[in-house]
């Protein structure tokens, strides 16, 4: 039996509630995952305004290898 055109094995996307930082500017929609922030209370990397904490349902990303010293 032939495979259909464009058919792929779709892996389930895993999501979780993640702490993020959102820009407080009404004209900027930038946000950053908490584990990717550059300081304890980050400024927006786009417009330099203050950012506030929030929670967002996001795809799971493992970034622990970035900080590994091995």
Number of strands: 3
Dominant shape? elongated
Trace the largest sheet across and list its strands. Answer: 2-1-3
Average of per-residue pLDDT values = 83
Termini separation comes to 47 Å
State the major sheet.
Answer: 3 strands, antiparallel
Q: Tell me the Rg in angstroms.
A: 18 Å
List unreliable stretches of 5+ residues. none
Protein name: Cold-shock protein
InterPro entries: YdjO (IPR025916)
Organism: Cytobacillus gottheilii
Question: What would your notes on this structure say?
Answer:
This protein is mainly beta. The protein is 0% helix and 30% strand. It has strands at residues 15-23, 31-33, 51-59. Strands 2-1-3 form a three-stranded antiparallel beta sheet, with no helix packed on it. A hairpin with a 7-residue loop joins strand 1 and strand 2 (31-33). It is elongated and about 45 Å long. 4% of the residues are buried. The mean pLDDT is 83. This is Cold-shock protein.
Task: Quickly describe the structure.
By secondary structure, the protein is mainly β. It is built from no helices and 3 strands. The protein has strands at 15-23, 31-33, 51-59.
């Amino acid at each position: 039996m032939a495979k259909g055109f464009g058919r792929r094995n779709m892996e389930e996307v895993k999501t979780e509630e993640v702490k993020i930082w959102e820009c407080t500017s009404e004209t900027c929609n930038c946000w950053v995952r908490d584990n990717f922030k550059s300081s304890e209370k980050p400024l927006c990397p786009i417009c330099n305004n203050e950012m506030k904490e929030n929670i967002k349902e996001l795809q799971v990303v493992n970034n622990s290898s970035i900080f590994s010293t091995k």
